[in-house]
Amino acid sequence: QKEVEQNSGPLSVPEGAIASLNCTYSDRGSQSFFWYRQYSGKSPELIMSIYSNGDKEDGRFTAQLNKASQYVSLLIRDSQPSDSATYLCAVRKAGTASKLTFGTGTRLQVTL
Amino acid sequence: SAVISQKPSRDICQRGTSLTIQCQVDSQVTMMFWYRQQPGQSLTLIATANQGSEATYESGFVIDKFPISRPNLTFSTLTVSNMSPEDSSIYLCSVGGTLFYEQYFGPGTRLTVT
């Protein structure tokens, strides 16, 4: 079992729809969770972080965390073509200081 | 967040040679990290660059192959030694944030080994 799992996609959503990106992790003691956006040929850009169960909203982005189910998701409302990118889930495991473990990413395509 | 720069942005190198990648931050940071992203893959942590002490390497990465320096709180280098085509990858440095263990990435160095 991978430490951080994501569906590689591509996930295709029409412009204006809600994109839902999912991530599961194996270490129940994980404490910090991050979503990065990576455009082709560019480096990852941090877009959301979440540390406690529930929802965290920032503009069109909502991160959801369920530690009991070891599940974290990212919702993108009113998806735009500029949201087309690969979204990486990253997890900080307990006892690993600042080390992050990344999933393989989900490629999102927003169609016109 | 900090502004991070990397040099070179890309390079093409011959096998058997070495390349040193520089990472510069515009403010002092405690934690700096080096990652590798192979084509079509996710990020793999190579090592944590510790200021004033030896780097901490992840499983599968060794100091002889990837020596790292961290002379101060704003600068680090990663050397890829005795390169082979399998080392062709994007190398990224990142810095730790000030809040809750988030990390911010530099623009990356695209390395091709022929």
Structural class category of chain A: mainly beta
> Number of helical segments of chain B?
0
Largest sheet of chain A at a glance?
A: 6 strands, mixed
Global shape of chain B: globular
Provide a descriptive summary of the structure in words.
The complex is a heterodimer of chains A (112) and B (114). Chain A has 112 residues and is an all-beta fold. In chain A, 0% of the residues lie in helices and 53% in strands. Chain A is built from no helices and eleven strands. In chain A, the strands form two sheets. In chain A, strands 2, 4, 5, 9, 10 and 11 form a six-stranded mixed sheet that branches. A five-stranded antiparallel sheet of chain A has the order 1-3-8-7-6, with no helix packed on it. The mean pLDDT of chain A is 94. By secondary structure, chain B is mostly beta strands. Helices cover 0% and strands 50% of the residues of chain B. Chain B has no helices and eleven strands. In chain B, the strands form two sheets. In chain B, strands 2, 4, 5, 6, 9, 10 and 11 form a seven-stranded mixed sheet that branches. A four-stranded antiparallel sheet of chain B has the order 1-3-8-7, with no helix packed on it. The radius of gyration of chain B is 13 Å and the shape is globular. Chain A binds chain B through residues 32, 34, 36, 42-46, 49, 51, 88, 90, 92, 97-105, and chain B through 1, 31, 33, 41-45, 48, 90, 92, 96, 99-108.
Q: Which labels suit this protein?
A:
heterodimer, A: 112 residues, mainly beta, six-stranded mixed beta sheet, 11 strands, 0% helix, globular, B: 114 residues, seven-stranded mixed beta sheet, four-stranded antiparallel beta sheet
Short overview:
The complex is a heterodimer of chains A (112) and B (114). Chain A is mainly β and 112 residues long.
